[in-house]
Amino acid sequence: MDHYLDIELRPDPEFPSYQLLAALYSKLHRALAAQDSTTIGVSFPDFDSKVPHLGARLRLHGGLGVLSTLLASDWLAGMRDHVVLTQPASVPDNAKHRRVGRVQVKSSPERMRRRLMRRQNVDEQVARQRIPDEAARLTHLPFIQLRSASSGQTFRLFIEHGPIQPAAVAGDFNAYGLSQGATIPWF
N or C: which end of the chain has fewer CB within 10 A? Predict the structure, then answer.
């Protein structure tokens, strides 16, 4: 992770920034999945956990070769009018590190009950006893609203920026550019 590039959303009177970010992130996800890339990580330098908001800038992290290959694939087709793209640059020497990962929240007791009924062949009454309404967990993490390519369903991809760490942790990234263990440079 010695290079990075920034993609900043331009203000648009017709589309709010969260909608443009969702479209951009969907395109990135498809590009990373098509390349089967496990070496490109993402971060959101302008995120605000108090609001919660991811900001209007997406930063891609990786080696110069993989970032250049991604840029050459023209995955930004259709979004170029909405973004300002920088060229890959070296990560500053004084950069800290942090993990950026997905958090899956079990927020719907009804969905958990249906799954229990399907998997363990129990009736609705038993499912309600095992999974009360109080089992719902909520989060205040920022998210991106995406549509699953396989099922067509929309879902919220909750994104957590972990604590700052002094040293890098190596590892793989998924097709969303997120990792449960690996860190990205933070500056």
Answer: C
pLDDT one-digit tens code per residue, 29-61: 999 999 988 999 999 999 988 888 999 999 999
Which residues are designated catalytic? 29
Distance CA 126, CA 116 (A): 9
* Alpha-carbon Rg for the chain in angstroms: 19
For the record, the structure tokens of 53 come out as: 């908001």
Q: Distances from the Cα of 136 to the Cαs of 17, 139, 158, in angstroms?
A: 29, 10, 16
CA distance 124 to 19: 38
In one letter, which amino acid is 67? Answer: L
Q: How far apart are CA 133 and CA 145, in angstroms?
A: 24
Q: Are 159 and 54 in contact (CB under 8 A)?
A: yes
Long-range contacts of 66-71 (CB under 8 A, 24+ apart): 66/37, 66/39, 66/40, 67/3, 67/4, 67/5, 67/40, 69/35, 70/31, 70/32, 70/35, 70/37, 70/40, 71/5
d(CA 76, CA 79): 5
Contact 161, 48 (CB under 8 A): no
Question: Beta 3-9 vs 83-85: how paired, if at all?
Answer: antiparallel
